[in-house]
Amino acid sequence: MQKTATIRDVAAAAGVSPQTVSRVINNRPDVAPQTRRRIWQVIRELGYQPSALARALVSKRTYALGLITADFSDYFFTQVIVGAEAEARRNGYFFILCSTERNPADEPEYLRLLTERQVDGILFARPSTEQDSRHVASLVHQGVPLVTTAYHLPGEQLTVVDVDNVEGGFQATHHLVSCGHRRIGMITGPADWKSVKDRSEGYRRALETAGIPFDPRCVVHGDWSYEGGYRAMQQLLLQSPEITALFAQNDCMAIGAMLALRETGRRIPEDIAVVGFDDIPAAAYCYPPLTTMRQPMQEVGRVATRLLLELIQDPSTERKEVLLKAELVHRSSCCSGA
Amino acid sequence: MQKTATIRDVAAAAGVSPQTVSRVINNRPDVAPQTRRRIWQVIRELGYQPSALARALVSKRTYALGLITADFSDYFFTQVIVGAEAEARRNGYFFILCSTERNPADEPEYLRLLTERQVDGILFARPSTEQDSRHVASLVHQGVPLVTTAYHLPGEQLTVVDVDNVEGGFQATHHLVSCGHRRIGMITGPADWKSVKDRSEGYRRALETAGIPFDPRCVVHGDWSYEGGYRAMQQLLLQSPEITALFAQNDCMAIGAMLALRETGRRIPEDIAVVGFDDIPAAAYCYPPLTTMRQPMQEVGRVATRLLLELIQDPSTERKEVLLKAELVHRSSCCSGA
DNA sequence: AACGGTTCCGGGAACGGTTCCGGCAACGGT
DNA sequence: ACCGTTGCCGGAACCGTTCCCGGAACCGTT
Q1: Distance in angstroms (rounded) separating the CA atoms of residues A96 and A115
Q2: What does the pLDDT average to over A87-94?
Q3: Stated in angstroms, how far is A32 CA from D7 C1'?
Q4: In strand D, which positions have an atom below 7 A from any protein CB?
Q5: What pLDDT, in 10s, does the model give residues B239-258?
Q6: Which residues contact B109 (CB under 8 A, 6 or more apart)?
Q7: Contact A203, A186 (CB under 8 A)
Q8: Which nucleotide has the least CA–C1' distance to B9?
Q9: Residues 292-331, chain A: which have Cβ within 8 Å of B?
Q10: pLDDT at B222
């Protein structure tokens, strides 16, 4: 890589002081228009690019954000990232990618990496499992701006952006109820996820509203995967073969479940109606096309980033929780489907 | 954020010069064991973290890599990223995320961002469309270490890691041929992608090997999406209703195509066999489960990053092209399926 | 006792910017 | 003619680290 020009080279070539060049590239006043033009000219000629590193060193602002993510196979989180990245970029910030995919225990080391690089803030785009989170709490106490999506840190007050999962679970279940179903199975995600608890809560409320007693045999845990949904469905049919409807807490599991259902000869939606959650692209093209709760995933990422930037601007901003709405998308896997 | 300790604070507290502290944190010799211990002690007490920024400024090494990506909805590229991130991390590097998802024209500005931040190298995890690529060529000439996946820059010699798409297309088609099919349709991706050209070339060779004449009416372009596969299939059935087999150049289009086929009453694989490409998770759980060419996507990311790091270590390393093999996965959408 | 070689450590400059502060010329008002 | 502003610019210090070099103390030889 050829040696790059510095601010001093530009200054020398333009016959001014580095100081004045600095004023020009930062659009500060107190430079004669003519001088300004000349300096820009020299900058272009020399192909000068200010060093973001040197700048950050003195200004204490890196315009870097950390992005903690855990599962790139999960459509939800990848879409959150897309939204987040777009919003960051719009504001001159960018993300450092930290994927704890393979090993959640790497997280503390990642956070160390991020603080060493003096990121201005950190966005958590990973689920809240009940792993050790003292290192996160410690960040909060250090005053590092922090926003999370779908991750609630017990005991700490922090800014969270998420989908209203209680409402979403309610709507999904209510839809099945309103189609006349009374025996409604549910495949959840892992028990320690907040979203699972919330969607399950929505399910329960919808049943309660309809005067249907909650039956624990109608509920099986899955792991969000196709495979998991497939197996959970087999389990569910064993436990309560009489169900006429299924609420799967994500689309992958719904699709896996539908395969299991077909294998038992059940027709969808005639014999059993299915509602998913997410609205992944495959949902519209699986067989049969899946009725599901669409989540505004990119929006979650955008809003989260916006709040993070606010927090960076003014660290005294009050922490808050923002919930976005999921919306029911009608397709043919369910009673009143197209 | 509370004021953080600097190397001078540590030095003062330990009664040594900053220089000596520097030697300790960098594990250099020429420090008495006792002094070393004392300094480590102080470092822990003060919670001192060396500033990566200041370090990078003098050492000219940022340990940052740029990651140019275009399509987070594409399973292939997200998996490449996962592999790349893991490999980078293993070597003490990390990625700055640059998604040109919304607007490919942003790319030059992204590259400017990356060079301003003095990244040590850049990984392109985006397809090679025939957009303007002068800015990329300019990077090459500046001597910035560069590795691409699935992206070939015409006229430039650079390190590329990709899947052997010619061979993959050949195998997919050959499999259909060996099941006895003679009229084999193909849904490709966008015409300007290198991988599309290569897979199509493989298709053509397989036909040729079997003595089947190539019929342009058997080929339709898609856009990689479910929707695109669905529409392409309708088009294909119009053009050549007599086909008994389909090679879709990715799984999404294959799944979309299967929906279109079912809508015409065709059974899979009895009436028409289908082979996809990628082996996305949905492939095993769609209906019917999809026979497809599995790509070692994470491996592509890992290898690409490894080569990039090599290039950074020694910029004189010869540029090369690495092709990984795709492998046929048998499922039930095809003749000899399970 | 003088000498060369280690071992351990520190002073000062540098990396590439920004900030603080102050200087100088021109200008308008009295 | 004098004085306070205003516009424009530069000198020096600093951000937090590392690198180059030199120097003191100690060791064993001759």
Answers
A1: 12
A2: 94
A3: 8
A4: 7-12, 14-20
A5: 999 999 999 999 999 999 99
A6: none
A7: yes
A8: D16
A9: 315
A10: 96
Q: What is the pLDDT of residue B115?
A: 93
From the list A75, A116, A289, which residue is nearest B52 (CB)?
A: A116
| Residue type at position B100 | T
Residue A127 neighbours by CB distance under 10 Å: 22
DSSP strands (E only) in chain B: 64-69, 94-99, 121-125, 146-149, 159-163, 184-188, 219-221, 245-248, 273-278, 291-294, 321-324, 327-329
Choose from B71, B93, B117 for mutation: most chain A CBs within 10 A: B117
What the block records as the tokens of B327 is 């492998």
**Pair A271, A258: CB distance under 8 Å:** no
The nucleotide whose C1' lies nearest the CA of B58 is: C15
Chain A CA closest to residue B117: A52
Closest CA to B147 of B189, B119, B175: B119
Strand D contact at CB of residue A57, distance < 7 A: yes
Considering only CB atoms, B113 lies closest to which of A56, A94, A99, namely A94
**Closest residue of chain B to A59, computed from CA coordinates:** B53
Inform me whether the pLDDT recorded for A1 exceeds 50.
no
| Digit-coded pLDDT (tens) for B85-117 | 999 999 999 999 998 877 778 888 899 999 999
Query: Using one digit for the tens of pLDDT, what is the confidence trace for B11-34?
Result: 999 999 999 999 999 998 888 889
Rounded Cα–Cα distance for residues A28 and A39 (Å): 13
Given a contact cutoff of 8 angstroms between Cβ atoms, the answer to whether B222 and B249 are in contact is: yes
Peptide bond before residue B289 is cis, with ω within 30 degrees of 0: no
- pLDDT tens, position by position, A266-321: 999 999 999 999 999 999 988 899 999 999 999 999 999 999 999 999 988 888 99
Which residues of chain A neighbour B56 with C-beta distances below 8 Å?
53
pLDDT of residue A336 exceeding 80, the answer is no
